[in-house]
Amino acid sequence: MGSAIHMPYKLLFVCLGNICRSPAAENIMNYLIEQGGLSERIVCDSAGTSSYHIGSPPDSRMSAAAFQKLQIKLRGQARQFQKSDFENFDLILAMDRENYQNILYLDPTGKYNQKVQLICDFCSRHNLKEVPDPYYGGTKGFDLVIDLLVDGCEGLLKQLKREQSDF
Ligand code: 4NP
């Protein structure tokens, strides 16, 4: 994640549509950041690799799962990932390998390679390596997204606290 300390440290969560997984990740991470009193130090955004849902709010099924499990409301409006995000964010967290690849295609020289990681690499209670796309499935899929993201975001926050000693 690099040794330079940026204030605030900027995280970008990325999925395909930016209406299910990545807005859930953004809002869950914000919830954890607020609980930890770190709102001045870490900021979050989210984006989709596709243009399918630009301008749309989070999917109502994703919002229902987040509210049921964590009592949080999902805020946001979908936007598409863009090349300038490589410069504007310190760390880019992809939900699955396809998102990861599609992000890296936009960085052919590999300059920002180290900034792009999979959120599941920060999980400690789950073995899944990707956050499965819940869009065409049922309620269980959305619940799993929340569980994986809480695990991944908690792990990520711990790692940031270790690395950024003044957090
Ligand atoms: P997300 O879910 O990538 O987690 O936002 C999806 C949303 C929309 C579609 C696929 C996945 N779609 O095909 O429209």
Descriptive notes:
This protein is α/β, with parallel strands linked by helices and 167 residues long. It contains five helices and four strands. The protein has helices at 21-35, 60-70, 84-88, 97-105, 139-163; strands at 9-15, 42-48, 91-94, 116-118. It has a four-stranded parallel sheet with strand order 2-1-3-4, sandwiched between helices. Strand 1 (9-15), helix 1 and strand 2 form a beta-alpha-beta unit. It starts with 8 loop residues before the first strand and ends with a helix. The mean pLDDT is 96. Bound molecules: 4-nitrophenyl phosphate (4NP). Residues 15-21, 48, 52-53, 133, 135 line the site of 4-nitrophenyl phosphate (4NP).
Outline the secondary-structure elements.
Blueprint: E1 9-15, H1 21-35, E2 42-48, H2 60-70, H3 84-88, E3 91-94, H4 97-105, E4 116-118, H5 139-163
Parallel strand pairs: 1-2, 1-3, 3-4
Helix pairs in contact: 1-5, 2-5
The structure holds 4-nitrophenyl phosphate.
4-nitrophenyl phosphate binds at residues 15-21, 48, 52-53, 133, 135.
Q: What is the radius of gyration computed over CA atoms, rounded to a whole number of angstroms?
A: 15 Å
- Helix vs. strand class: alpha/beta
Residue share in helix = 25-40%
How many strand units? 4
Low-confidence stretches: none
Distance between the termini: 15 Å
Question: What is the structure about, briefly put?
Answer:
By secondary structure, this protein is of the alpha/beta class.
